[in-house]
Write a sequence for this structure.
């Protein structure tokens, strides 16, 4: 049975130097900062949490802690969740322009920038993955979470009061890939679930289409990578990375040497064209057509990738 490997105990912050036109060669990727937790880091999210113009890193760990780090990976605070913490994201719960942290353990917990607990969900099975978006289009962020234990999983979508908007139980592998997106541009969001296979449901829980990868799903992301007005579904599995059309047809794929555990889309070169970063046996960078731009070796598998100009110096960092 496929089981997602854990990230190591460190967060490595790398710099990818860019100029106005093209990215410099791979030799210019350097390690800038490092943070060590007591146990494995399970998830991280990069965002300007307090609107001060500098981005923070939110990290969770099997040491039961939620960590808030500054852009230089210095610890601002740590919060004891009293249980393993598997996942993290950021949400504007009250639609007031102020982001809060939502962390997933045996329940969802919402914290503000000052580490004050604000809300919590009912008790759940371990919350493995969190996605934030406006599912019911009421102007408020909703929380999508995959929960479960071996062979038994449930996806919930909660509103900002932790009332259930959508719920579906799925047997099979852990649901490491989830998304809620309007795939067919009809003004209604579909629910995309990735475990043993990719399952796409409409708001009424009708199955729209499915796709069976070679292995269990390690991550999933929806984005219009080529800006043609049609969104693609990006799927990481073992050992392949797939790009699917919005109706489930294979567009292109790439074979790695391990499970693709993380996917991130960005415009690294600031040229109006998107690149795709994936984490597997190494970090890989692709253009939207599937051409490999570079790959970068680390000391082990790459479990999470993210990017952003953390300190507003016009240089893109990859965490």
């Amino acid at each position: 049975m496929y089981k997602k490997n854990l990230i190591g105990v460190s967060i490595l912050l790398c710099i990818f130097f860019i100029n106005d036109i093209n990215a410099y060669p791979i030799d210019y990727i350097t390690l800038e900062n490092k943070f060590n937790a007591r146990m494995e880091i399970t998830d991280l999210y990069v965002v300007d949490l307090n609107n001060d113009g500098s981005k923070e890193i939110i990290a969770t760990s099997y040491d039961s802690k939620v960590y808030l780090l500054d852009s230089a990976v210095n610890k601002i605070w740590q919060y004891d969740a009293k249980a393993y913490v598997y996942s993290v994201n950021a949400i504007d719960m009250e639609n007031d322009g102020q982001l809060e942290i939502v962390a997933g353990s045996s329940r969802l917990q919402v914290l503000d920038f000052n580490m004050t607990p604000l809300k919590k969900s009912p008790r759940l099975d371990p919350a493995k993955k969190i996605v934030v978006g406006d599912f019911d289009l009421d102007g408020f962020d909703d929380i999508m979470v995959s929960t479960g234990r071996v062979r038994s999983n449930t996806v919930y979508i909660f509103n900002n009061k932790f009332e259930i908007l959508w719920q579906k139980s799925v047997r099979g592998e852990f649901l490491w890939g989830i998304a809620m997106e309007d795939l067919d541009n009809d003004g209604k969001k579909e629910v995309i679930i990735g475990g043993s296979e990719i399952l796409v449901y409409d708001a009424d829980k009708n199955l729209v289409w499915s796709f069976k990868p070679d292995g269990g799903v390690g991550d999933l992301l929806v984005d219009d990578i080529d800006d043609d007005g049609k969104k693609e579904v990006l799927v990481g599995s073992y050992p392949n990375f797939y790009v699917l059309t919005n109706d489930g047809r294979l567009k292109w794929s790439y074979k790695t040497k391990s499970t693709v555990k993380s996917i991130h889309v960005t415009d690294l070169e600031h040229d109006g064209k998107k690149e795709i970063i994936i984490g597997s046996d190494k970090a890989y960078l692709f253009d939207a057509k599937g051409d490999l731009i570079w790959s970068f070796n680390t000391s082990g598998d790459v479990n999470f990738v993210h990017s952003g100009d953390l300190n507003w110096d016009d240089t893109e960092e990859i965490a």
Q: What stands out?
A: Residues 1-9, 15-31 have pLDDT under 50 and may be disordered. Residues 44 and 59 are 4 Å apart (CA to CA).
